[in-house]
Write a structure and sequence with these properties.
Strand order of the largest sheet: 2-1-3-4-5
Number of helices: 11
CATH superfamily of the largest domain: Response regulator
Number of domains: 2
Distance between the termini: 35 Å
Helix content: 40-55%
CATH class of the largest domain: Alpha Beta
Structural class: alpha/beta
Radius of gyration: 18 Å
Shape: elongated
CATH architecture of the largest domain: 3-Layer(aba) Sandwich
């Protein structure tokens, strides 16, 4: 049976190109397209796809908010986030909103097809960054896990009390602005703290840092 897909992206050319690629596969069927998050939510209710390919950034309603609505309305539907960047911090929010994974937009056609099929089978595989993560990592991300267990790293990393607060919020998926508001700090101060934390653990992005603090290891 074909996998019934809805593509939600505000770039028409990308949507149409992706549709052509996917419909070359006998087991994939694109049943609809949406140009913004609100339309995606409405199309889900009308067309009842099995899976939605959801861009993280769209007008009217962004992909994260739309994912949250879709998952609440139809928990049986699987959402894969689409992002232009492998280290897009919004991917974390998307997974926490209920997405099963994500695909970088410049992935090869083979990667798109492989990830869609794996998602249908319930296999945690995302491209390219999260592909090698243990399923428990994605499970924790989706559960908005707090960083309560970070004490295991404190003696090794020498995190300051402020840095531990920031790491706790980072793992929860908070943005720099949300961290700044909650801790009564400036955005520049939060950014400086994050860069210091990244240097301590030897990573260069928010996604890598979250993986490290959830698993105790750097991403491979």
């Amino acid at each position: 049976m074909s996998i019934r897909l809805l593509i939600a992206d505000d770039q028409r050319l990308f949507r149409q190109s992706l549709r052509i690629v996917l419909e070359h596969e006998a087991d994939l069927k694109v049943i609809g397209e949406a140009g913004d998050g609100q339309e995606a939510y409405e199309q889900v209710k009308a067309l009842r796809p099995e899976m939605v390919l959801m861009d993280v950034e769209m007008p009217k309603l962004d992909g994260i908010a739309a994912t949250r609505l879709v998952v609440k309305e139809r928990p049986d539907i699987k959402v894969l986030m689409l992002s232009a960047y492998a280290d897009d911090e919004r991917v974390l929010h998307g997974i926490q909103a209920g997405a099963v994974g994500y695909i970088v937009k410049d992935a090869t056609p083979e990667e798109f097809v492989k990830i869609i099929r794996a998602a249908r089978e319930g296999t945690d595989i995302t491209s390219p960054y999260l592909a090698n993560l243990h399923p428990v990592v994605l499970a924790r991300l989706r559960g908005a896990t707090t960083a309560a267990g970070l004490s295991v790293h404190d003696s090794e990393l020498n995190l300051s009390p402020r840095e531990r607060e920031i790491v706790d919020l980072l793992v929860q998926g908070k943005s720099n602005k949300e961290m700044a508001d909650q801790l009564c700090l400036s955005g520049d101060t939060i950014k400086a703290h994050l860069q210091h934390i990244f240097r301590k653990i030897g990573v260069s992005s928010r996604l890598e840092a979250v993986v490290f603090f959830l698993t105790g290891r750097r991403a491979s």
